[in-house]
């Protein structure tokens, strides 16, 4: 069985016409007919019923078509892998990212990377740190941004790029709106709107407050920082968010304020998996990121 035979078979099954299939494939009709016949002889089964000029799949032909499509996809993936190793500048990279850094870090990085490697393509997936790490380990992602960056373990290799401060965001009419900076202790009686508990950012804020003997009252939680800002702007509470996503994205109904507590900062970087070797295009992207951020600075 040949790759060509599968391609011809799938196209004939799709259009149910030998002539039309040959035109779509840019191949002589006799060549398509010959390969279909060879395939049926090799399998020892009839895949099509010839009804006039039309080709209709038999029952077993329908079953074979489903598997043939899967087989062809896998063969094409294998071919793409080989082609990528021959030329790493034409691969695809599956990138994970928390939504708290998606709007600021990624556009600049991808824009700079595309200038050097315009033929590499990307697939992006968002999620919590826990979700993204799991997708990386199971092979659904090739590399993922994370914040904060976890410690190295048996499964992952971390690369920290920089640290980022967290900032307070309050309604524009709030008692603290005119302040240049505040301490977490000043917020003990406030109502908070934070990310959900499966986000590391939630635990960073909660743990810092608890360490200082403060119990935060969280009244709303959202995965989307625009939603959080909207709720704050409506006067429903205050929040603590990364400086990066607030830069240039403050709603007119809100004010951002620096926090004095040095613990309220997070690291930003990527992790890669130790479970498999990286493809050439993935290595290109990782090495580009290390140079772009000058790792550790």
UniProtKB/TrEMBL annotation:
Family as reported in the entry's similarity comment: Belongs to the LysR transcriptional regulatory family.
Keyword Nucleotidyltransferase among record annotations: no
Protein name as it appears in the record: Putative transcription activator of glutamate synthase operon GltC
Pfam families: HTH_1 (PF00126), LysR_substrate (PF03466)
Species name: Listeria cornellensis FSL F6-0969
Superkingdom of the source species: Bacteria
GO cellular component: cytosol
Keywords noted in UniProt: DNA-binding, Transcription, Transcription regulation
Entry keyword annotation includes Transcription: yes
MF terms (GO), sorted A to Z: DNA binding; DNA-binding transcription factor activity
